[in-house]
Write a structure and sequence with these properties.
binds zinc ion; 6 helices; about 230 residues; TIM Barrel; alpha/beta; eight-stranded parallel beta sheet
Length: about 230
């Protein structure tokens, strides 16, 4: 087993956890399990990457939590494609939560997000570390309050060692995995960002091509130049 930000290693970690009798759940599935991993994904940059990981987890028979960020500069949660993917992720058994940014109204965002997959929001996660807790989150579980050993790949860096080293060491874990690094099989941070960029560029190019085609058809129908 070789550590790295690859789908192969992600799958190995999930299989390892299953072999060691962990139950893998999103926060909504957390009860009094003896050995449990709350698996969580914050969607900072790409719903498509998250969707890909959600499918991989579905095939592995595990469910996780996906936290949607409403202020991403690189995706819109309300774009039809994103909405469809979020709905499908929920349909696969994953929890959909809010990745909050306390500069903005959390109740407003939770309302919009819950209408995408038609289910009330159960939990949330913070985007900026150290943020003060928003006032409006009463009744919503904040991942930072879960009493589990927390490890994260933030900035493509397992500060306390790769997740595989924690599986078996602690009975109760909260693991944060950012899909963008893993589904692109990134060799380093710059490579990850470059692959993310190419992905966004490709999808934007397809959208623009469609807009262009629609405009041409519109003009032809009216007999005007384009
Ligand atoms: Zn590892
Ligand atoms: Zn974030």
């Amino acid at each position: 087993m070789k550590c790295g930000f690859t789908i192969q290693h992600f799958k190995e970690c999930i299989e390892l956890a299953k072999d060691k009798d962990y139950v893998i759940v999103p926060p909504v599935g957390l009860v009094e399990q003896k050995k449990v991993i709350v698996l969580r994904h914050d969607i900072d940059w790409s719903v498509e990457n998250a969707y890909e990981l959600a499918n991989i987890e579905y095939d592995l028979g595990v469910s996780a939590a996906y936290y949607v960020y409403m202020h991403s500069a690189t995706y819109s949660a309300l774009a039809p494609k994103s909405m469809s993917m979020i709905k499908q992720m929920y349909g696969m058994g994953h929890e959909i939560g809010l990745h909050y940014d306390s500069r903005y109204s959390m109740s407003f965002e939770m309302d919009i997000l819950s209408r995408i997959h038609n289910k009330a929001i159960y939990s949330c996660s913070q985007h900026y570390p150290g943020e003060t807790k928003p006032e409006s989150y009463q009744g919503i579980i904040d991942c930072r309050d879960l009493e589990l050993k927390y490890i994260s790949d933030s900035g493509m860096n397992w500060r306390e060692g790769c997740m595989c080293q924690w599986i078996g060491k602690k009975d109760k874990l909260q693991i944060l995995v950012h899909p963008e690094w893993w589904v692109t099989n990134s060799t380093n941070r710059v490579d990850g960002i470059n692959k993310l960029f190419v992905g966004i560029q490709d999808s934007m190019a397809r959208e623009m091509q469609q807009i262009k085609q629609d405009l041409v058809t519109y003009c032809k129908d009216l007999g005007i130049s384009y």
